[in-house]
Amino acid sequence: MTISPPETRASLILRLPNAADVAAWDEVVAIYSPLVYRMALRQGLQSADADDLVQEVFVAIARSVGEWLDRNDRGSFRAWLLRISRNTAVNFLTRRAHRPWGTGGKDAAEQLAQVSINKSDLSDEFDLEYRREVFQWAAEQVRESVQETTWQAFWLTHIEGLSIEEAAQQLHVSTGTVYVGRSRVMSRLQKLVKRYEVHQ
After folding, report:
1. CA-to-CA distance for 24 and 20, rounded, in angstroms?
2. CATH number, domain at 75?
3. Which tens digits make up the pLDDT trace of 2-22?
4. Per-residue pLDDT averaged across 147-175, rounded?
5. Helical spans, DSSP H, in the chain
6. Are 18 and 117 in a shared domain?
């Protein structure tokens, strides 16, 4: 499977006002929906509610991304997405808070308070999750573009912490092959991540 290199986020986001640009929306959803979903879970929502929240967030983005792009003071896409996610979570929990107590209104009210209290922590968590998601996305692209031994040379030494010699023994290759393989993977990962970090 051939994987085309990703566009920078700036050029990708400029394509979002075109609702028919499925490739742009697929890439943005692939990177950001897991962040929004995990944020929702951390705010105390159940899995099904978190899924609903993700859908609401992306509907809100689709409705307002053109207007946001026209603003001179728009800031980063990630900050805007976090703001939409928080506001959507507050709205979601507010709707639940007005339901009868038997359907979780009390819990929803407590969760609503937590959303407001943890604004700073939520932003930090969102940034961390974003970096993890970009790395995971980039890793999937790179793994599909190199031989398995090359990928394992990187994985065993950089992720699992094996020495070069241990990895070479496990893979039945020379230490030089491990050095070259992990270097190749790291270089490709850095390029993908850097391109996606442009204009954050």
Report:
1. 9
2. 1.10.1740.10
3. 333 344 466 778 888 888 888
4. 91
5. 9-14, 22-42, 47-70, 77-97, 105-117, 119-143, 148-154, 164-171, 175-197
6. yes
Separation between Cα atoms, residue 162 and residue 155, nearest integer Å: 9
How far is it between the farthest Cα atoms of the chain?
A: 67
Q: What single letter denotes the amino acid at residue 53?
A: L
Q: Are residues 12 and 104 in the same domain?
A: yes
> How many angstroms separate the CA atoms of 62 and 56, rounded?
10
Dump pLDDT digits (tens) for 88-109: 877 777 765 544 434 444 554 4
> CA-CA distance, 188 to 3, in Å (whole number)?
13
DSSP reduced 3-state for 108? helix
Domain-located, residue 137: no
Q: Is residue 28 part of a domain?
A: yes
Give the total number of structural domains in the chain.
Answer: 2
- Residues 48, 4 share a domain: yes
| Structure-block tokens of residue 61 | 């983005």
